[in-house]
Amino acid sequence: MGNCLKINSSDDISLLRGDSVSIHGHQDQLPHEQLQQVFYPAPSVSIMPIPASSTTNSHMSEEDQIKIAKRIGLMQHLPIGTYDGTTKKARECVICMIEFCRDEAVRYLPCMHIYHVHCIDDWLMRSLTCPSCLEPVDAALLTSYETT
Amino acid sequence: MSELQSSLLLKKQLAELNKNPVEGFSAGLIDENDIFRWEVLIIGPPDTLYEGGFFKAHLHFPKEYPLRPPRMKFVTEIWHPNIEKNGDVCISILHEPGDDKWGYEKASERWLPVHTVETILISVISMLADPNDESPANVDAAKEWRESYTDFKRKVARCVRKSQEECS
């Protein structure tokens, strides 16, 4: 294990296909129990270049645009729930260090760490790693699809 | 992450550090009106060559903090394999997240949005005690550290003395 972004595998969402789920919108085919309490809205980030990877030219290459689109597609598979106030382990979002409010929208990563949707989405656009446990989000997503 | 959220997060950290200071360093702002530019004073860690020194450094946070790392620069002269001669600190936790084109740094070793002034300084203090000679920023210091340790020690001792004079 190493990089958050392994060029050959991390963004290759085609690996997700062939399951019961297709990345391109057939979410009605998800197993029924997975739809309870969670929904899969688009990430709260817009398509824009990431400062870390943007170079001198302000126009993104087609390759970068595809990469961002793929990543947004992958992030759509991370469920969003509402903070119910009973979770003992997480009281605040470790990114902004602000306490969760009851009924606030939080995003669940496969490792079950939760964050404010806008905080974690901005981060995932830069690195597909859980800030708390460093689990690579893409690999964990693939594993969770394999086991269901 | 908006600029407002970034500044709130930094203000929170400053208040916390004022209330509960951490051993080994003190922290404040360069200019009271600019929360994105900090000045820290690192106390040379005990049982290291830097013991007894007082090293001033500046931290410049980007508006996107904590999604992007700050830059750190020693203002006090310091001789160390992982600190450039101009004072720039080169440690992996301050490296931008995202694609690692060269593939030699693990995600866990690079910037994470959970890092705070405190965790950054703890890493820097541990770097002072334990240089990483695999990716030196000051090649001459790294070479000396490996091959002529006596010269290395002498240079560090000079920096320590100088830092004490500057502080008194």
Automatic annotation (TrEMBL), chain A:
The keyword Acetylation does not apply. Keywords: Metal-binding, Zinc, Zinc-finger. One of its GO terms (cellular component) is ubiquitin ligase complex. Pfam families: zf-RING_2 (PF13639). One of its GO terms (molecular function) is zinc ion binding. PROSITE patterns: ZF_RING_2. Residues 93-133 form the RING-type domain. Gene3D superfamilies: Zinc/RING finger domain, C3HC4 (zinc finger). One of its GO terms (biological process) is regulation of dopamine secretion. This is RING-type domain-containing protein.
Automatic annotation (TrEMBL), chain B:
Keywords: ATP-binding, Nucleotide-binding, Transferase, Ubl conjugation pathway. The active site is at 90 (glycyl thioester intermediate). One of its GO terms (biological process) is protein modification by small protein conjugation. The keyword Protease does not apply. It is an enzyme of class 2 (transferase). The keyword NAD does not apply. Its EC number is 2.3.2.23. GO terms for molecular function: ATP binding; ubiquitin conjugating enzyme activity. Residues 5-165 form the UBC core domain. Coiled coil: none annotated. Accepts ubiquitin from the E1 complex and catalyzes its covalent attachment to other proteins. In vitro catalyzes 'Lys-48'-, as well as 'Lys-63'-linked polyubiquitination. May be involved in degradation of muscle-specific proteins. Mediates polyubiquitination of CYP3A4. Belongs to the ubiquitin-conjugating enzyme family. This is E2 ubiquitin-conjugating enzyme.
